[in-house]
Amino acid sequence: MIGEPTGNATFSAHKGSLRPRVRVKGVTAHSGTPELGVNAIYQSARLLGLIEQSHQQQVRCRCNVLVGNASLTVTRIHGGHADNVVPDSCELLLDRRMVPGEDEQAVKAELQQLFDHAKATAGVEAEIIAWQATTGGATETDSNEAIVAHSLAACRRHGQAEPGPFGFQGGCDLVHFRSLGAKGVVIGPGSLAVAHKPDEFVPVEEFIAAAAIYLDVALAMLPQESAT
């Protein structure tokens, strides 16, 4: 059981993520004669349109019944180093959210195809210079697994009227346990709606109930002779 803010409901799937750092190339020049250079920020603007198009027409069409749609978005951009210089580079950070069933290597190849398309159709030279660390890929535990059934029962028993199963929109560590062959779920007190905010909090009653849920599921999953 992975502890994340689920309001003590059972989440048996979660999204994964890839975050490529992308450098868009230009040609430097004095800002008084910009026609002698290629502005990497303008080139990035052209690429941004293609990224949005890829999200709308291709990526978001991939859907999982529990976690919803895959996505591709830009979360950071930085370009230029001086007030009077046409920038010869601009960096973007992309966030590609994957859904269960998507292959990480296939997604990486698809991103490269996007940059190849940008060069061929818009003259934009862009390259992936690094991959930011993330929690990993997407995963899902089949709803017929015993741990899912026991978790649903425990969540319901301890006050959760809608125990699930649901899909977690963020990434988490369940994927790493699944990669080793373990079955698992995501359950914990609190809400993702207030996560990473200045006033993030966990209701005390949910915290106490979560401990009882973990105990109930652990006992239910033990062999009967061990549980007694």
Number of domains: 2
Supply the CATH class of the largest domain.
Alpha Beta
Strand content: 15-25%
Most strands sheet = 4 strands, antiparallel
In the CATH hierarchy, what is the architecture of the largest domain at level 2?
2-Layer Sandwich
Coarse shape: elongated
How do the helices and strands follow one another from N- to C-terminus? EEEHEEEEEHEEHEHHH
Q: Segments where pLDDT lies below 50 for 5+ residues?
A: none
First-residue to last-residue Cα separation: 21 Å
CATH topology of the largest domain: Alpha-Beta Plaits
Structural features, described:
The protein is of the alpha+beta class and 228 residues long. It folds into two domains: 20-131, Alpha-Beta Plaits; 138-221, DNA polymerase, domain 1 (Orthogonal Bundle). 33% of the residues lie in helices and 23% in strands. The protein has six helices and eleven strands. It has helices at residues 40-57, 104-122, 146-157, 174-178, 204-221, 224-227, and strands spanning 11-14, 16-25, 29-30, 63-64, 68-69, 71-79, 85-86, 89-98, 126-132, 139-140, 166-168. Strand 4 and strand 5 form a beta hairpin. Helix 1 packs across helix 2 (104-122). The chain is elongated. It starts with 10 loop residues before the first strand and ends with a helix.
